[in-house]
Amino acid sequence: MGKKTEFLYLSEEDIIKAGALDYARCIDVEEEIFALLSKGDYVMGGDKQNSHGIYIKFPKESPFPNMPLDAPDRRFMAMPAYVGGRFNVAGQKWYGSNIINPQRGLPRSILMVMLNDVDTCEPLCLMSGNLISSVRTGCVPGVATRHLAKKSAEVCTCIGAGPVSMACFDAIALEAKNLKEIVVFDIVKEKAEVFAKEAAEKYGISGRAADSLEEAVRAADIISVAASSVKPVNIENNWLKPGSLIMFTGRCNIDEAYFSSAKIIWDNAKMHDVYFDDHMALPEEQRFINGIGVQIYRMCFEGKLPPVIEQTSLGDVVCGTKEGRKNDEERICFVTGGMPVWDVGWGYELYENAKKLGLGQTLKLWDDPYLC
Ligand SMILES: NC(=O)c1ccc[n+]([C@@H]2O[C@H](COP(=O)([O-])OP(=O)(O)OC[C@H]3O[C@@H](n4cnc5c(N)ncnc54)[C@H](O)[C@@H]3O)[C@@H](O)[C@H]2O)c1
Q1: Domains in the chain, start-ordered, CATH in brackets?
Q2: Residues lining ligand 1, CB < 6 A?
């Protein structure tokens, strides 16, 4: 007789009850995981164990009538990770993205997170991943604000007025304790106005939409860039104030002069080293075009910056093994590409909460495995 296997299924409603929208807790959990990243107590996919994940990208044309075709933000992606420490769990986020989904009353991306026992490999939990993913994405700039923003920061600018940008601001607002104003720039000004009003009311600060990117950036001590990835946001060195922290959650370029004096800090330099390798494997004309950190990768390739792998990761700052902010005049650029360790770690926290609260449905995989 083999072993019965059951696992927990958590719907979006269940994970909300389990605390999925608790940004303050997610920032703390992510800070803990940043320390595990720095110590090396984690594994992600690929030969270098640091891959963001693997895509299914559809072809531009196909003889097969049912095969989807390439389109902006059209993909499936699997993002596996093991997270160590008290988590000691393996899992993955699996999602599909189709830009026309909102016309069908669906989110653009639909995400699921699966957790597995690292020893027996049995499923522990299958859970709705949309909120896990958006809150974990927002909370990374939250941890970066805690460690890298100057304490006196009063103005935060958000570039892009979409849901990811709002998740980032929700976390930044918790960590920037002296915040007085939010400024928003979006190519659609009405979206920026709605975002600024909502964020200002939520946090009891003033808020306004800026008329230009330059005006928005010049105003800020903290800049969060999370605009759509079709074209990078282009920022000029002299727009960025002394002491500012700029965080790239979406694509952004700053003219090269900025990087001769500013400090770069990655979410995980080892993952960006894998991205760098991926670019180097492409034909020369296709390199360093798509991706959040591509401008910096190109500068490393051209010898204008040290190799990505030698640069600082936020986990090293959290652990105190590398220097973070030196003083209130220093300008810092933080780059985050997103990692499955957040989905697995934050998902695990919610799974543990759900068990304590008796949430979700228990599903049976088998009473007695047929192939045992
Ligand atoms: N790093 C990560 O972990 C991570 C995770 C998820 C998403 N993202 C990034 O976040 C981005 C935003 O995601 P979303 O779901 O909120 O997208 P969205 O399309 O819903 O919203 C993006 C907003 O950006 C605006 N925009 C587009 N180009 C702009 C520009 N040049 N300047 C100012 N505003 C501009 C759009 O008008 C829109 O309001 C994604 O494109 C992706 O690159 C990053």
Answers
A1: 5-133+341-366 (3.30.1780.10), 140-339 (3.40.50.720)
A2: 137, 159-165, 185-188, 191, 226-229, 231, 233, 249-250, 292, 336-338
